[in-house]
Specification:
By secondary structure, this protein is mainly alpha-helical. The chain has 13 helices and no strands. Bound molecules: protoporphyrin IX containing FE and N'-Formylkynurenine (NFK).
């Protein structure tokens, strides 16, 4: 049964060596002796790991769109959507924590908060949600500020998508193509018209139609994540203020109004 199975790893790379499990599994360090703090930390670590992969895939998607190679971009975007499903499902595990379970260790969190998740902010910037205020919590960490600032200053996934549409001959308005990419994208009627063409003529423009639907999948899942976060927070801390200083649930509800790709939603009314 055990024939052939290697057991001597004094001189050879093992599973744990390759995966750096000592580092990964030494990071779960509760500050209290409360049972549920381990769950709280684990959920965050899992979400941050998935966010790391999302950033990796979004970089590939943006590069491929820029280089006029949508195939691999779609593959990366489809992978991001699957990762998002995992992120959304993870809320279910956290809802097993009651308000009392959470309040028992909440004071240990001090003023730390999801506001300061730089990987989350990096994703938002790459999707085009450019709010310069959100750079501030990272001012004390130049190593984190640099990639955030770079994503803030660069075209978003949506900017790259609209540029691709223009290169394929669709009449994307010039001022949209030449806009200041450090500003949030404002809904544009000309862009709605372009997407309407893509949807109406999806047979001929199949690749661009696929791009549109991949983008809609991404935003749809992102909003579902935000909604589940807001609902989970609501059932765990009610209307308390957040440790990050915001109003809490009301702030999170406000974020649900913000769209990354507004024309892709408006076009549905026009078709
Ligand atoms: C008991 C569970 C949780 C509670 C009570 C909670 C509460 C909050 C609150 C109140 C805010 C608003 C900022 C503030 O004032 O603090 C916030 C923001 C945030 N939280 Fe959570 N959260 C929880 C779990 C999570 C988890 C598991 C994640 C996953 C990484 C997460 C990620 C974030 C992010 C990224 C933000 C910033 C959102 C934005 O600026 O739009 N939170 N959270
Ligand atoms: N903002 C949360 C605290 C919180 O959730 C949190 C604190 C430290 C590390 C991650 C967190 N998760 C997301 O906001 C609260 O007000 O209870």
């Amino acid at each position: 049964m055990s024939e052939g199975i290697r057991t001597d790893f004094a001189q050879r790379m093992s599973y744990g060596d390759y995966l750096r499990l000592d580092t990964l599994l030494s990071a779960q360090q509760p500050l209290s002796d409360k049972h549920d703090e381990m769950l709280f930390i684990t959920i965050h670590h899992v979400q941050e790991l998935w966010m790391k992969l999302m950033n990796h895939e979004l970089d590939l998607a943006m590069r491929c769109l820029r280089e006029d190679d949508p195939g691999p971009a779609f593959k990366a975007m489809a992978r991001v959507s699957r990762v998002q499903r995992q992120l959304i499902e993870a809320w279910d595990v956290l809802t097993t924590m009651t308000p009392a379970d959470y309040l028992a260790f909440r004071d240990k969190l001090g003023s730390s908060s999801g506001f300061q998740s730089w990987q989350y902010r990096l994703i938002e910037f790459k999707l085009g949600a450019k709010d310069p205020f959100m750079l501030r919590p990272h001012a004390h960490r130049p190593d984190l500020l640099a990639p955030l600032q770079a994503a803030f200053d660069a075209p978003s996934l949506y900017d790259e998508s609209l540029r691709l549409l223009a290169r394929r001959g669709l009449p994307v308005p010039r001022d949209v193509l030449e806009r200041d990419v450090t500003k949030p994208h404002a809904e544009d009627e000309g862009v709605v018209a372009v997407w309407a063409t893509v949807y109406r003529d999806s047979g001929r423009l199949f690749e661009l139609y696929e791009l549109a639907e991949e983008l809609v999948d991404l935003e749809d899942a992102f909003q579902t994540w935000r909604f589940r976060h807001m609902k989970t927070v609501s059932r765990i801390i009610g209307m308390r203020q957040g440790t990050g200083g915001s109003s809490g649930v009301s702030y999170l509800r406000g974020a649900l109004e913000r769209s990354f790709f507004p024309e892709l939603w408006s076009v549905r009314t026009r078709l």
